[in-house]
Amino acid sequence: MTILDELDKRILQVLQVDASLSNHELAQRVHASPPTCLRRVSRLRKEGVINKQVAILSPDKVGAGLTAIVEITLDHQATEYQIHFENLVANEAAVQQCYRVSPGPDFVLVIQVADMTAYHALAHRLFATQANVRNVRSFFSITRSKFETQIVIA
Q: What are the residue boundaries of the HTH asnC-type domain, all occurrences included (predicted)?
């Protein structure tokens, strides 16, 4: 685990809110010099603390307005079967998140697609054609009342 000092934490908090800031703007907000800030951000990326910087889109504005939260139970739960399933969903762009969970189902997926027709096509590809998928339970979002990407830094 990387040890974070107070400046690292301030940098990470600000970047979680707005990663599009220039290095100079970031340095001003965290009360550090631009060279120091640049070195710190570079180190945090190199160490994997900053995994990636992205733009978060509004799904309904880009034609991906249906969110499905899907529970998957496999027939066989041995590690190789779980890895096979993870590799299968990793190649599907509409699967935004995949979690191995316990207890209950083996996996929980968060899927973002255009509509129910697109979901059915994806479900057929990923679930119905897989011999090891025993049970699929899908929930469809009516309203998204909260969506955050920030992690509380202790």
A: 4-67
First to last CA, the chain: 13
Q: What is the pLDDT of residue 120?
A: 98
Dist. CA 151–CA 36, nearest whole Å:
23
What pLDDT does 149 receive?
93
Query: In angstroms, rounded to a whole number, what is the distance separating the alpha carbons of residues 17 and 104?
Result: 34
| pTM of the model as a whole | 0.87
The predicted-structure confidence for 99-134, as pLDDT tens digits, reads as follows 999 999 999 999 999 999 999 999 999 999 999 999
Q: What is the Rg, in whole angstroms, of the alpha carbon atoms belonging to the chain?
A: 20
Q: Which of 19, 145, 123 is nearest to 68 (CA)?
A: 123
Residues 66 and 129 in one domain: yes
27 located within any domain: yes
The two structure tokens encoding residue 18: 């707005």
Q: Which two tokens stand for residue 132?
A: 């090891």
CATH code of the domain covering residue 39: 1.10.10.10
